[in-house]
Structure formats: structure tokens, C-alpha cells
Amino acid sequence: MISINKIYKFLNTLGVVGSAVAVVSFSSGLLATEKYPQKPVRIVVGFSAGGPVDNISRIISKRLSEKLGQPFVVDNKPGASSMIAAQFVANSEPDGHTLLMVASTHAINPSLYKNIAFDTSKDFTAIGFVAENAFVLVVPKDLKVNTLADLIGLAKNQSSPLNYASAGVGGLPHLAGELFKLEAGIDTNHIPYKGASPASVDLLAGHVSFMINNMQSALPYIKDGRLKALASTSSERISALPAVPTFKELGFKSLQFTGWYGLLGPAGMSPDLVKQLNVQISQILREKEVVAQIRADGAEVKVGSPKEFSERIHSDMMKWSEVIKRADIKGQ
């Protein structure tokens, strides 16, 4: 039997906008006999095992396996800022058996890299959000500042630029650091590291002055007093850090943002299959145990429709593209 997803992808490539309507009765007949999933499902992750994206992928894949009766297996394909994994999924069959868990870097990469082997806007099907996390500006405990105004004042009153850390070129900590520099009118020097862990080590030692880091990495050091949090990127104060103001409160509205995680499939997945997956994931994200597991990893669950997820990817592509241009960050 020919898969309805293959038919939908073929018609989609022909640009037949109304084709989905034309095959509704046919597709419903096929779907009645096609059970999903028919075999193990691969959730491809463009990051190494043990990181936030991998951890959240394993939480979701475990529950999908239990609910749908087939293994959902996490397949780590790190490298090239998660683009190796994305290309693999973009080239896969749109039958729902190869999916991609992405982070915000997916929306940033098109503005940083010239020779991407896929089209971020056209080669994927948005399925839904999974989680989001805020970022927080942190400084070493011994740095003689206690507020964001103190940090800005320090930067403006010293002769050399303040060094700030990030987990690597082009990630949200880097782009947020550059946006803060532009909005605050200060001089800073970006020090990229190969990951959040080595960046945090040098921050703790006072070798750099600040970092805008994700909550997963920063919170343990804030809690034990080795780092001071001066501002968060969330829309409201973070429940775990109620005394820490938001950037928005302090007059930096452009620094209100969150990172996100979500699920994509290859372009051409049928709307019925996308809806089924979105419903299953949304149900999982409302389970108390799953909410607790994701919070323990420093994030919050986020439920949304495929349309909402697709629109967020597009809006973030526009937002960070503008920051990259303003900051004159060179792509590769």
C-alpha cells in the first residue's frame, strides 16, 4: 500500500495547494488501515548525549514508546551546530518514523552559515513545541557589582572592554551578549568556549566578567553563591529566582526571549499524522511527572500547535538575523 505521507509529499512538491483537500476521502480510508507507528521511530538529536536537548528528547521518547507501542529511539548526531542531524532528517521519508528534536540554534543557523544543504523554512514539517528555557546574566561572586546598572557602569568606567563568555559562536548566549552590548552602549569582548561547562569554569574563576547563560547551567552556581544573577531574559521573574529582575523591567525590552526545544519532521508529512503526533506530545507534556522531569533539567514545558511552532521558528529567524547583522557577527 502506498503511504498517504508519500502521496502528500509528492503533491506538495508539485505546488498543488488544494491537493490535500482532494485526497481527504482517500487518505481517511488509508489511515483507517495504516496504524502509526508501524516500526521503531528515530528521534534524531543534533547534540551530544547528556545535554539539555538530549535529556528532554529521552523524556519524551520514553513516554511516546509507552503510549504508542513502538520504540521511539534517540539517535545522537552531533556536529556542525546541529546541521548534520537536520540534513539527515530533511532527506528522510515523511512517514513519521524519522523525527528531529531541535533547539533555538535551528533558527539561528541560516544567518550564520552560507552553505547549508537544506532550507530551514521549506524542508521540515513543524510538529510542536516541547519546552522552553530562560537565560540569566551572571557574574562571579567576587566581581564588585550587584545590579545590572553596576555592571554597565563598570564597563563604561574602565579603559579596557569587559570580557564575556559564551558556549560558542552563534549560540543564544553569544547573540544575547552582543545584543546587551549594543543596547547598553558598552564595550565588551566575546570569549567563545567549546560548551557551557568550560565557559562556566572560567566565569567562576573570574577570568571573564559575565555570561548570559541558560538556566540549566547557571542555576546550581547561583544557588550555591558562586555566581550572582543580575537579570533574566524571561517575560516575568523566574520562580526559582524571585529577587532577580527581568531585562524588560530594567528597560531592555529587546532582551526578552527564551530558548526553545521542539519536534520537526521532514517536509511533506500529512496533516493527519502531524496532528496525531502533536496531540500525543501535548498530552505527555501535561503529565505531572514529565513536567517535574523537565523542570529538574532547568526548563519549562511548552505546549503549542504546529502552526504556532512554525511561526516561532520564523520569527526567531528574523530576530536573530537582525542581531547578527547589527553586531557584524561573521558567518561561516
TrEMBL record:
InterPro entries: BUG (IPR005064), Bug_dom1 (IPR042100). Keywords: Receptor. Pfam families: TctC. The keyword Membrane does not apply. It comes from the Bacteria. Belongs to the UPF0065 (bug) family. This is Tripartite-type tricarboxylate transporter, receptor component TctC. It comes from Polynucleobacter kasalickyi. The lineage of its organism: Bacteria, Pseudomonadati, Pseudomonadota, Betaproteobacteria, Burkholderiales.
